[in-house]
Amino acid sequence: MKNIFPLLVFGLFLCFGFGCEDNDPDEKINFFLRINISEKLVSNSSGSFNILVSSNTKWTVEAKNTWLKSERTKGDGEMTVKISFEENTTDKRSGVVRFSAEGLNPVDLIVTQSELTFTNPIAGIPDPWIIKHDGFYYFCKADGGGINIAKSSRLSEFPPTKRIWNRPYDSGNTKLWNVDNIWAPELHYVDGKWYIYYAAGRPRAETDSYQYQRSGVLRAKTDDPMGEWEDLGMLYTGDNYQKGIVPTLDNTNYAIDLGVFRLNGQLFAVWSGNPPGSGDQWLYIATMENPYTISSSRSVISKPDKTWELYTGKLNEGPAFLKNKEKGKFFVIYSCNGSWTKQYRLGYIELNDTLSNPLNMSNWKKSPREVFFRCDDTSSVDGVNGVGHCSFTKSPDDTENWIVYHVKNRNDNTWSSGRSTFIQKFTWKEDGTPDFGEPVGWGEAVLLPSGETR
């Protein structure tokens, strides 16, 4: 027994000191192979770029076109690969660089070489809104004390705008609700007529706050949105709706960034508003009797409660609507964190079932993380320092989906350094959710929208 005890101690030492592993020979390792981008646009002149490969196995890389070359033919694990391209003398060409690993589906990088490009920003405008109708793009923006619209056959160029509406002024003891702070107008075509939804309020100097910001609606007097408009007044955004109620500053709540959508025959309004007794901003929804009359009390559908929404302030704002008709999905894309900070970004809520009641918050599911964000952290030069407040449109030939958004130009905590309008193409994931990719860089070449030429 005296000889056995030391052997037992030695055995325990081996087990705990070096690890008694339960090596299951049948345990399956999940191999993977990824690259950091799936598409790359390059100019017609010769050059090169780097691709980051992430993997836990050995892999190979092969350029499928003679004008493309990879500096290496194989690798193992995570590595950077340099891809070179030759000069192009045609308008446009595309090629493939394929990454492969045994037992895995190959991963292709699509390289497009063209001079048919543009660069962002296309304008120095915050809260950009672009809508396509009958082959033309209409750009809508706030401009000092009014609202302007531009018309263009091109998506990649923001033409000069025309003033279509001016704010009213107080007259004697008559104090109007919408004399100042004209914000984020949205141009919508509803039931055969043009409407603009906008935010406005009393002068900030009266209360040292924006607490009286409310939402109103304009209607075009003709079929031409570049023509005359009429003001249809404030929209009801309160908690105690009664049929026939006349909206006032007293019976409504703070409401900005209001937009409308139709689902299953019913028109809805969604906006960003304050919950009772708080300066936080949540997303609210209500039914509409017609494009200029809200017909229910507001119901909350989103509040900032995820870590990525709470870096700076407690804000959900700038709702925009996106439908994936092929997959039968409906999304509200919104902005979170302070728009004056570098943490501004996009998330979404998705209606669990498009036949369910959108007034019920439990029928909405929030994205697990932000879906669009970039921060170059630049202070002395312009860059992409937070992104948000988007709208959506199509390419001229209707084959591509495009997101319109603004970026914050510098990393300071102020609006004074500027916000600028960007556009870029997006696609859909297999599960039907939007794939916005990464925001493009300031001055980065982007392929022209499909159907648009020089």
Q: What is the second-level CATH architecture of the largest domain?
A: 5 Propeller
Q: What is the rounded distance between the termini?
A: 93 Å
| Alpha-beta classification | mainly beta
Largest sheet strand order: 2-9-8-4-6
Q: Oligomer, anyone?
A: single chain
> CATH superfamily of the largest domain, please?
Glycosyl hydrolase domain, family 43
The portion of residues assigned to helices is under 10%
What's the main sheet like? 5 strands, mixed
Return Rg in Å: 27 Å
Overall pLDDT level:
93
- CATH third-level topology of the largest domain: Tachylectin-2, Chain A
The fraction of residues assigned to DSSP E strands is 35-45%
> In one word, what is the shape?
globular
Structure description:
There is one protein chain. The protein contains 1 helix and 32 strands. The chain is mainly beta. The protein has 2 domains: 33-115, Immunoglobulin-like (Sandwich), CATH 2.60.40.10; 118-447, Glycosyl hydrolase domain, family 43 (Tachylectin-2, Chain A), CATH 2.115.10. The strands form 8 sheets. The chain has a 5-stranded mixed beta sheet with strand order 2-9-8-4-6, with no helix packed on it. Strand 12 and strand 13 (146-152) form a beta hairpin. The longest helix is centred in the N-terminal third of the chain and has 15 residues, at 4-18. The radius of gyration is 27 Å and the shape is globular. Mean pLDDT is 93; it is low at 4-10 and 12-21.
Write the layout of secondary structure elements.
Blueprint (H helix, E strand, L loop, with lengths): L3 H15 L14 E3 L3 E4 L4 E9 L2 E6 L4 E3 L3 E3 L2 E7 L6 E9 L6 E8 L2 E3 L9 E5 L2 E8 L2 E7 L9 E5 L13 E11 L2 E9 L12 E7 L8 E6 L20 E9 L2 E8 L8 E9 L2 E2 L4 E4 L13 E9 L4 E8 L8 E7 L12 E3 L20 E8 L6 E8 L10 E10 L5 E2 L9 E3 L7
Parallel strand pairs: 2-9
Antiparallel strand pairs: 1-3, 3-7, 4-6, 4-8, 5-7, 8-9, 10-32, 11-12, 12-13, 13-14, 15-16, 16-17, 17-18, 19-20, 20-21, 21-22, 21-23, 24-25, 25-26, 26-27, 28-29, 29-30, 30-31
